Amino acid sequence: MKSIPLSFIAQRSRQQGSALIMVLWLITMLGMIVYSMHRIVAHDLDLTIAQKQSFRARQLAEMGLNWAMNPAVKEYDTAILNQTLEDGESFSVKIRGEGGRMNMNAILQQGEASRTFLAKLFNLWGLDNDQADVLFDIMVDWTDTNSTKLLHGLEKEDYVAMYGENTPYPFNRPFYNLEEMLLVPGFDQVVANLPDWRDYFTIYSAGKVDLNEAEAKVLAAVAVALEGTSDPATDFPDKLEDAQELVVERWGPDGIEDTEDDIKFQNQDEMNTALSSLGLDGADPAVQTIFGVNDQTVHIESVATVGEYRKRVVLIVRNRTGTPQILTREEVPLFQ
């Protein structure tokens, strides 16, 4: 019997080992491919679910707006305006008067007559007297229709020097939306000190601050600015307490907001009584220029939740209970 050479046995062993290594390598590669495909499919699935939830949240927010646009629906109809649906879906809608904010266009159109008022507001929000005067002049020059520069203001040639020949600034017209205020040089100082500045201003109301709708912080800010004290920031906390008491009074006997017994001031005498609680004289022409009641511009805010996703849509409408006129509709980030 002929024996098999050892060299042949060694060669066969090497071939078998190489084949085994190749098989293991192929199994590893197939495993990596399967894992990668699993990750891709899982990512695409997560993305699809997120897109679906985001779209659904926007749908629900729009549904809330549609409910609120019905003129028969009141601010206190919480069963309609706050609904929880299946699978954790919900929407919540608030109907507020847009007149509860200060109309920046209306204030600036008063020109020099509004300098002290706006300067004191800017003082309240961290600007010194010189900075407040400069910002006032720049804002007036930005929104007026002429090319005459105020003492500290900026006109076309100044913006050309800063940004070049193709600059569109200044617009020389009223603000079309609140975001345009961010373009005004120096207003970023106000924003830095007042992150919720959008709660204080509007460009859509009839012009005056509606005493029935303004939040306590807005009432307090307007009151200290009208009083013209040398240190509005020091006086603000006490004024805010007075304003909060006035807001609670508006809630009626039950002390709960958005119920049927909420109180609305209807005439000058009722306004004067309410304003006196803020330390203001309702007969003062400066006060009458700022405050009013029953502004017909409505701010509707709808927030919808689907899973981990939330959407907030704001609709501003004039004359909601009559012939409505939609002034703007925008999706607002929830962190603003």
Helices and strands in order:
Blueprint: H1 6-69, H2 78-81, E1 82-84, E2 90-97, E3 102-103, H3 104-108, H4 115-124, H5 129-143, H6 156-163, H7 187-193, E4 201-202, E5 209-210, H8 216-227, H9 232-250, H10 268-276, H11 285-290, E6 291-292, E7 297-306, E8 309-318, E9 325-331
Helix pairs in contact: 4-5, 4-8, 8-9
Feature tags:
9 strands, 5-stranded antiparallel β-sheet, alpha/beta, extended, two-stranded parallel ribbon
Task: Explain how this protein is built.
The chain is an alpha/beta fold. It has a domain at 101-295. It has eleven helices and nine strands. The strands form three sheets. Strands 1-2-7-8-9 form a five-stranded antiparallel sheet. A two-stranded parallel ribbon has the order 3-4. The longest helix has 64 residues, at 6-69. The termini are far apart.
Strand content: 5-15%
The quaternary organization reads as single chain
> N-to-C terminal Cα separation, in Å?
93 Å
Determine the structural class based on helices, strands and strand pairing. Answer: alpha/beta
Give the beta-strand count: 9
Please give the radius of gyration in angstroms.
32 Å
Task: Give a summary of the structure in a few sentences.
With 336 residues, the protein is an alpha/beta fold. 47% of the residues lie in helices and 14% in strands.
